[in-house]
Amino acid sequence: MNHRGGWALIKNTWQSWLQHRGFFFLLAFGWMLPLLVYMLVWSAAAGEGSLEGFSQETLAGYYLILILSNQLTYPITNWTVGDNIRIGQISRWLIQPMSPLYHALSAEIAGKVVFMVFSIPVTGLLALLIHPTVDINITNVILFLPALLFAWVLRFFWGYWLALLAFWATRADSLLALQDTFIFLLGGHLAPIHLLPDWLQPIARLLPFRYMSAFPVEILTGQVTGQETLLGFIALTIWLTLAILLYRFVWQRGIRHYEAVGG
Amino acid sequence: MNKPIIQVQHLTKTYRVPEKLPGLGASVRSLFKPQYRDVEAVRDISFEVHSGEMVGLIGPNGAGKTTTLKMLSGLLYPTSGQATVAGFTPWERHTNYLRRISMVMGNRSAMNWDIPPMDSFRVLSQIYRVPEKTYLHILDELIALMDMEALMKKPVRNLSLGERMKCELVAGLLYQPDILFLDEPTLGLDVAMQRRIRQFLKSYNTDHAVTVILTSHYMADVTALCPRVMLIHHGRLVFDGKLQSLAEKLAPFKLIKLQFSTPVIDFENYLQQFPDVESLPRQDEHYSLRVARSEVAKVTAQLLSQLPIADLSVEDPPIEAVIDQIYEVGSV
Question: B241 and B259: one domain?
Answer without folding.
Answer: no
